Model the fold of this input.
Amino acid sequence: MEYFKSISILELANLINASKKHLYICLPSIHSEISDAISELHFFENHGGGNVTINILIDFDPQTIRQGYGSFDALDDLFREGHNIKNLKNNRISFVISDDIGYYLFIESRSIIPAEKETINAVRIDPISIIRLKKYFFPDSKKIDFKDELSNAIIEESKFLE
Done:
């Protein structure tokens, strides 16, 4: 698996839709393509008997949307579906964790860089950092045994380093 890569909006949407256990997404705000992918995942979970937990963390500041990091309509759609969206004021940290795969995302404002421009914008997150991110940004996440996950992450990372 690539360590540095380009993740387009379509690839990010596909990563979201591939979630089987949990999705953690932290962005300044959300555009419609990401909102649609989350809604699709949520729909299939409700109608397919799945058990994916969806965790969303964004900056609710309207200035963030005006700066090109998301859209009000995309957020409104997620709120109407009943998603539990948390606020992190002045957030510019971006990452996605889908099950055991995570990437730090270097999101550009759409008012500066077109959404379809291919750029190297993602770095794979190591298993231990995935645990740290979940524990720090989503501390109230239920169904997480951080000690057990950390033990597994240490074993996985040590195998990778060998």
The mean pLDDT is 85. The CA atoms of residues 28 and 64 lie 7 Å apart. The chain has six helices and seven strands. The longest helix spans residues 32-48.
